[in-house]
Structures are given as structure tokens and as C-alpha cells.
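Whiteboard transcription, Tuesday session. T.W. wrote the C-alpha cells on the left side:
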């Protein structure tokens, strides 16, 4: 339970201060405008009586599919770079003899976090969503494989697109619905991934503040409220999981 976790504070913890802002700004200033542009284009073609508009809608579908996946991959890449940079700094400060953070295997990254911070990544409430994001990154980079099979088992909803967000038109001599081999990523899902990243770094910041040996009165007062909020959130989460 993150509420009770403590670790040895490092400069690396201080250097993560802007991670939440960066990913949030990327969502608000890059991803949201892109989806807004798609909606505007779609409304124009859907309102048109010109038969050519059907072709434009099909092209727009393909653009949305590929761009949504590319934006998801960008979010995943930002998250992974942030985490690896953080762990590399931790390993350097702790003078780790056999650094793991720069190794390509994701298992090495998870082990590096546990070794450096004394906390397993799966103890964070955001971990299931971040794990899903990591698997999506593998799928969008390398295509069908082990990660795709895991996603199909753990997150079948990724193949259940919201018809209000996606039209799924594909030209095959005529327009028809077509199942997608790879997941479709919506704006709602991208927001979910971004929020998970923000939550993870917020949890790390909380552990950092609780791990301070000497706390200013203002910080201690703020932490009292934050502990209460986190305890309540944890209780609500447990109730939700049991229902």
C-alpha cells in the first residue's frame, strides 16, 4: 500500500518534478487538438450530400486508426523514457554495480525499480493501466505477438470501440464494418493512460514527501489532509473491487 511506503530520498526524486506537467501538456496541447480536428472534418463530410464524402470518411477512418495508435505509442514512449531516466539516476546515486535501467528488457526495469526504491511497481494503483499501455506500445511497434495475446486476454474492451467515436468504415468494393486485428485507441483511452502516468508520479512525490526526515510545519499539515484523502480513496477502491 503506497500510503505506508518510505524510501531513501535522492536527487533523482527531485528531478521528476515536471514529469506530470509534461505528459499532461502533451495530452492537452497535442492529442486533444488532433482529435478535435478529426471531429471537425468528420462533421463536414457527414453533412455533405456529395458521394465523394464517403471516400473521404473512409480515408479519415484510416487516418484516425493509425494516428490514434501513433499517439498512444508516443504517450507510452514518454512514460518509459521518464521511468528509465529516473531509475538510471537512482542507480548512479546509489552506485549500483550492475545497473539495469538501460537494459532493453522490461523485466529489468521493473527489477531496477524494486532494487532502488524497495517498492514493486505492481504495488502502485496505476500499475494495471501502465502495464496495459506498455503492452500496447509493444504491439504498435512490433505487430502481433506475445503482447497482443496478453492484451486480448486481459483487455478485450480495447477491441470494443465506441461507435460515437469511431465510424469503422473500410472500402472493400462497398463500405462495411470490419474487425480490427490491432486495438483501436480512442481519446478516452489516451486520457486514461495519461492519468495513470500522472497518478504514478504523484504517488512517487507523495512517498518522497513522507520520506523526508524533517518536515516543515506547512508540509506536515498538508500531508495530514493528503493521508486522509488517500486512505479514503483506498477504501473506495477496495469497496469497488468487492462489488
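and on the right, the sequence the group agreed on:
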Amino acid at each position: 500500500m503506497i500510503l505506508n511506503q518510505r524510501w531513501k530520498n535522492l536527487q533523482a526524486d527531485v528531478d521528476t518534478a515536471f514529469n506530470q506537467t509534461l505528459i499532461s501538456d502533451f495530452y492537452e496541447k497535442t492529442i486533444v487538438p488532433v482529435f478535435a480536428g478529426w471531429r471537425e472534418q468528420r462533421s463536414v463530410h457527414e453533412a455533405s450530400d456529395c458521394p465523394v464524402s464517403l471516400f473521404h470518411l473512409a480515408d479519415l477512418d484510416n487516418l484516425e486508426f493509425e494516428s490514434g495508435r501513433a499517439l498512444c505509442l508516443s504517450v507510452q514512449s514518454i512514460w518509459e523514457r521518464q521511468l528509465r531516466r529516473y531509475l538510471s539516476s537512482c542507480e548512479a546515486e546509489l552506485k549500483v554495480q550492475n545497473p539495469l535501467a538501460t537494459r532493453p528488457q522490461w523485466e529489468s526495469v521493473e527489477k531496477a525499480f524494486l532494487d532502488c526504491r524497495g517498492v514493486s511497481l505492481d504495488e502502485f494503483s496505476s500499475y494495471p493501466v501502465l502495464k496495459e499501455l506498455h503492452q500496447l506500445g509493444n504491439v504498435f511497434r512490433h505487430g502481433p505477438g506475445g503482447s497482443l495475446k496478453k492484451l486480448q486476454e486481459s483487455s478485450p474492451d480495447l477491441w470494443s470501440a465506441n461507435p460515437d467515436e469511431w465510424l469503422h468504415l473500410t472500402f472493400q468494393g462497398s463500405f462495411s464494418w470490419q474487425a480490427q486485428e490491432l486495438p483501436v485507441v480512442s481519446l478516452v483511452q489516451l486520457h486514461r493512460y495519461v492519468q495513470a502516468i500522472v497518478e504514478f508520479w504523484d504517488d512517487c512525490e507523495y512517498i518522497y514527501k513522507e520520506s523526508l526526515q524533517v518536515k516543515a510545519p506547512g508540509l506536515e499539515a498538508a500531508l495530514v489532509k493528503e493521508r486522509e484523502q488517500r486512505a479514503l480513496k483506498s477504501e473506495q477502491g477496495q469497496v469497488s473491487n468487492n462489488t
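Someone added at the bottom: The mean pLDDT is 85.
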